[in-house]
Design brief:
The complex is a heterodimer of chains A (372) and B (292).
Chain A lengths: L2 H18 L5 H27 L6 H21 L5 H28 L2 H21 L9 E2 L15 H25 L1 H11 L1 H6 L4 H27 L1 E2 L6 H14 L4 H24 L4 H7 L2 H17 L3 H19 L33
Antiparallel strand pairs in A: 1-2
Helix pairs in contact in A: 1-6, 2-6, 2-9, 2-10, 2-11, 3-4, 3-5, 3-9, 4-9, 6-7, 6-9, 7-9, 10-11, 10-13, 10-14, 11-13
Chain B lengths: L1 H31 L6 H19 L2 H22 L9 H23 L16 E2 L2 E2 L3 H23 L1 H11 L1 H6 L4 H23 L12 H14 L4 H22 L4 H15 L8 H5 L1
Antiparallel strand pairs in B: 1-2
Helix pairs in contact in B: 1-5, 1-8, 1-9, 1-10, 2-3, 2-4, 2-8, 3-8, 5-6, 6-8, 9-10, 9-11, 10-11
The chains are: A mainly alpha (372), B mainly alpha (292).
């Protein structure tokens, strides 16, 4: 897909999504804004894992970095008397800088590590970031940082509700983030990432510097996650350590795998599931005649139970995730159609490989003669 | 000074528990090349069973037996039911399956037992004993050190001195050759999971009285620290697990004592970063260790 076509598609999609906000009530628009915020993070994560083959369990920490970057910049700008669009853009820039720096550092570490080591480092990060946020005085501890209220701009005030405006902003940021990732994926950098993922040695022989490619993937993924964090803070007007727990990190990973690893459509499906599934399950348990104590216990936990089961079933049974299952079904239908009448129609069961395989990465690292 | 001695003492006690938990990760890594990211959640399931048994029988010792048995059984179920589906071609697939398992187990525990922190009293006094006017270890800490070191020693004997241990090691390092020589590799792999899960459950039971209490997330930090331990020690080296455990235990104890408990995770992160920058595959991961 050419870059111009991508941009046109993104602009068209954004206009359609903004049009759709007129059909939704305020609560649905609020949910849409949340979906857009999580989409930034899941899209970044799916590009990182699917394209460069690096696993991050720490994307909630990167969202937190973006959220704090946004909140601190916005509060500094408020103090300086700036407001409106300039303040919002300044905050977004702050989010990009902070999450980008954290992502760059993580990427530098990630370029040296592989598989479980990187996963463990990012896991530790996601436990440590709330601890840092809670103990640094400038971040106001467990209460977190509150930001000024961003209302609907003057000219639009009589036309749209606050939730609709927030959905617009969230959708616009998500559109920019996802478009950036699509351009990255389709461009030269994406090709290099796939090369490094599939065979690091061959890529190096072809003149690619694997470490540089890995760091770029991590930084890009971190910046989009940070944008997601900024959008969350814009919508809720506060950021606190408790908003980005380990569970959120796991949920983001579950979302991209359930949606279909490596596919941006999958990331979108995953983001929708993250917001809608808890709400749907909540609505279902409210509708059933259950005692209040039971409902309270099921609140939140039942949704994650469903998520976890989905994840296990999908990884074990349908490695392409939801998006992969859709493509596979379409491919099967097409083959069946083309084979109709031919002798012995054979289902070509070749779903897209979801989990990147890294045949070149020594699975027993210490045995290589250069190490240890 | 007194305070430092006391912190070192509790650090050693915590460190041996971490070493036991980390050994569980090392066992599974050696046998299957999977880091069991679900180890914490699995161990907590064992502890819930154990605490229920303590409640019924009134005996802490029956609870300990129940924890170990439940942990081992869960290891069996998880290996046979979930992680055998991990693709051997992709190092990520095992991690992702394990994460799914964490989410499932923790939400099941939350649904059945709720999210409250349930206090678990230790079987011995946890007030420190004074030695020459200096507060040192509590009897419970001493008990923890003895049990954890005893178990580490027993596992070492099992692996190095018995024919079963030889088969376990052979199945982990040369599955193809071992199969040709008549080792039941799949069975050894399952046995490795059972041993590892039982050890992790016991470690979690020993750690819980010193934590806030029992809750579905009680072992999250234990797992993160134990992972750090396993990396510091090298994921391949059981001896490294003990040394790494003592290091991480003492570091977290001293940081908690002087700077507050919120900074303990930061100290763990810092330690992990430093070690990984110096040696990306752990301090004690060496060719010799792998041959053992």
């Amino acid at each position: 897909m050419s870059a111009r076509r991508t941009l046109l598609l993104a602009a068209g999609g954004l206009v359609l999504a903004i049009g759709a906000t007129f059909l939704l009530d305020p609560f649905r628009n609020y949910q849409l804004a949340l979906v857009a915020a999580y989409l930034c993070a899941t899209a970044g994560l799916t590009v990182l894992v699917g394209l460069s083959g690096q696993l991050s369990l720490g994307h909630a920490a990167l969202m937190a970095a973006g959220g704090y970057g946004y909140a601190l910049t916005v509060n500094a700008l408020t103090g300086a008397g700036v407001d409106g669009v300039a303040r919002f853009l300044g905050g977004v820039a702050g989010a990009v800088v902070v999450s980008g720096v954290v992502g760059l550092l993580l990427g530098l570490a990630g370029a040296r590590l592989h598989g479980p080591y990187l996963a463990g480092l990012t896991l530790t990060l996601v436990v440590a970031v709330p601890a840092v946020a809670a103990s640094v005085p400038a971040l106001q501890g467990d209460r977190g940082v509150r930001t000024a209220f961003d209302g609907v701009p003057g000219p639009l005030r009589s036309l749209i509700a606050l939730e609709q405006w927030q959905a617009w902003v969230a959708l616009a940021v998500a559109a920019v983030a996802v478009t950036g990732l699509v351009l990255l994926r389709d461009g030269r950098a994406g090709l290099r990432m796939r090369a490094v993922r599939d065979d690091e040695v061959a890529a190096a022989l072809a003149g690619i510097v694997p470490a540089r490619v890995k760091v770029l993937a991590f930084a890009a993924s971190a910046v989009t996650a940070g944008l997601g964090g900024a959008v969350l803070v814009f919508v809720t007007q506060s950021v606190s350590p408790g908003a980005f727990p380990l569970a959120l990190s796991l949920l983001l990973l579950v979302a991209v795998v359930v949606g279909g690893l490596g596919s941006l459509l999958g990331a979108a499906l995953g983001a929708v599931l993250v917001v809608l599934l808890p709400w749907l399950v909540g609505a279902a348990t409210d509708a059933l005649p259950l005692p209040a104590a039971v409902v309270q216990r099921l609140d939140g936990t039942l949704a994650s139970l469903v998520f976890g089961l989905l994840l296990i079933v999908l990884v074990a049974g349908a490695p392409g995730g939801l998006a992969g299952a859709l493509t596979a079904a379409r491919a099967r239908r097409r083959t069946r159609r083309s084979l109709r009448g031919a002798a012995a129609p054979r289902p070509t069961d070749d779903p897209p490989a979801a989990l990147p395989t890294t045949p070149s990465t020594p699975r027993e690292p210490v045995r290589t003669p250069t190490e240890g | 000074m007194d305070r430092l001695v006391f912190l070192l003492g509790t650090g050693v006690a915590r460190g041996t528990v971490l070493a036991l938990f980390a050994l569980s990760l090392v066992l599974i890594w050696r046998a299957t090349r999977i880091v069991n990211f679900a180890a914490g959640a699995m161990a907590v399931v064992g502890v819930y069973v154990g605490v229920a048994v303590i409640g019924v029988t009134g005996s802490w010792w029956w609870g300990l037996v129940a924890t170990v048995v439940a942990g081992g059984l869960l290891g069996l179920v998880v290996e046979r039911g979930v992680l055998r589906f991990a693709s051997p071609r992709s190092p990520l697939s095992g991690v992702i399956l394990a994460i799914g398992l964490v989410v499932v187990l923790q939400s099941l525990l939350g649904i059945v037992f709720g999210q409250e922190h349930e206090p678990v009293p230790p079987p011995f006094s946890d007030r420190p004993v004074q030695v020459g006017g200096v507060p040192l270890l509590s009897p419970y800490d001493l008990f923890v050190v003895v049990v954890a070191l005893g178990l580490l020693g027993a596992l070492r004997l099992l692996f190095v001195r018995t024919s079963l241990g030889l088969q376990l090691r052979a199945a982990a390092f040369e599955p193809e050759v071992s199969r040709l020589l008549g080792v039941r590799v799949a069975r050894m792999r399952t046995l490795g999971w059972v041993l590892a899960a039982a050890a992790a459950s016991l470690a979690a039971l020993l750690a819980v009285p010193n934590e806030l209490g029992l809750n579905p997330h009680a072992a999250d930090m234990l797992f993160v620290s134990a992972f750090t331990v396993a990396v510091v020690g090298g994921l391949d080296s059981p001896g490294g697990a003990l040394l790494g455990g003592l290091t991480v235990g003492v570091v977290t104890s001293v940081v908690t004592g002087y700077l507050g408990s919120t900074l303990a995770p930061v100290a763990v992160l810092a330690l992990l970063v430093v070690v990984l920058l110096v040696r990306p595959s752990g301090l004690f991961a060496q060719a010799e260790a792998r041959l053992a």
